[in-house]
Amino acid sequence: MERLGTERQPAVFFKKRLGFRKQRYLFIYSCLLIPLLFFLCIRILPILYSFNISLREWDLLSEQKPFVGLQNFITLFHDPVFLQSIHNTLVYVAIGVPGQLLAGLIIALLLQRLNRSRGLFRTIYFIPYVTSVVAVSWVFRWILMKNGIINALLLHVGLEPQLFLGSPSQSIYWVIASIIWQSIGFQMLIFLTGLESIPSMYYDAAAIDGAGPWQRFRHVTVPLLNPVIVFSVIIASISFLQSFAQVLNMTSGGPLNSTLSMVLHIYNLAFKHFKMGEAAAATVVLFSMILLLSLLQLKVLNKKVDY
């Protein structure tokens, strides 16, 4: 009888432990299910529904939503304004992403060399990132007005005043400059975190081998920062592809649609012209661009480095 009792004790303990594991996993999965359902309802379902809208003649003023297939896409790609918005968006990405990453990396490298007041400078550079986009856009707009501060300084030194945001050839670059200025703090923080995670022994070994500052940066810092660079490039690219608030508040897409972004054009189609079908089709095009560009960047930039 004693042997039988001792044999049953491990079995009972194992059953209790198994029941406790089931309860724990049930609790974990139930906690994960709530945000998953929220994500599906707020993110996935609207995306799928936008695909449905893009295939219909969806006018907010009409009750009929007939299926038109790819007609909305054909109309978009025959629209010179939409093609101009694609061109402008690619300019935002091509100029803004390298400029933003380069500025953030330079400031991070300089801050890494500071021994005192590093936290103060980090806070100062990060403040614009958490400042209202609308406020920053209007400050830049006031500075770059015809009778703004910059033109006043140009006249003071004897130079000709510039149109800035009123020039079809200049305005897009000033919008890009405002976006870069506001996002420097985020990129600086990401790069500074990556720089501080690189072990100093690699730099010591490279210095012993006779590598100079540029060689250490090129062959040690950049390869070991590759995961950070990939993350920053993808985040910055998506941000510039979705440029909206700065464009709307600084130029409203003008002059002559020279700063019109795809997101602003989608906004105009949907809420000014009430063409929800074309707006949804433009959203699908933008979604495809973001997906393809992100996959391409992951393929090209993601390289494994072993030391």
TrEMBL record:
Could you list this entry's UniProt keywords, alphabetically sorted. Answer: Cell membrane, Membrane, Transmembrane, Transmembrane helix, Transport
Which residue windows are transmembrane per the record? 25-49, 90-111, 123-144, 172-192, 224-245, 279-298
Report membrane topology. Multi-pass membrane protein
Q: Which PROSITE patterns match?
A: ABC_TM1
Tell me where on the tree of life, at the top rank, the source sits: Bacteria
Q: Which InterPro entries match?
A: ABC_transporter_permease, MetI-like, MetI-like_sf
Q: Which GO terms describe its cellular component?
A: plasma membrane
Q: Which subcellular locations apply to this protein? A: Cell membrane
Q: Which GO terms describe its biological process?
A: transmembrane transport
**Which ranges carry the ABC transmembrane type-1 domain?**
86-297
Chief location category: membrane
Family to which this protein belongs: Belongs to the binding-protein-dependent transport system permease family.
- What's the protein called, per UniProt? ABC transporter permease
Supply the source organism for this entry: Paenibacillus rigui
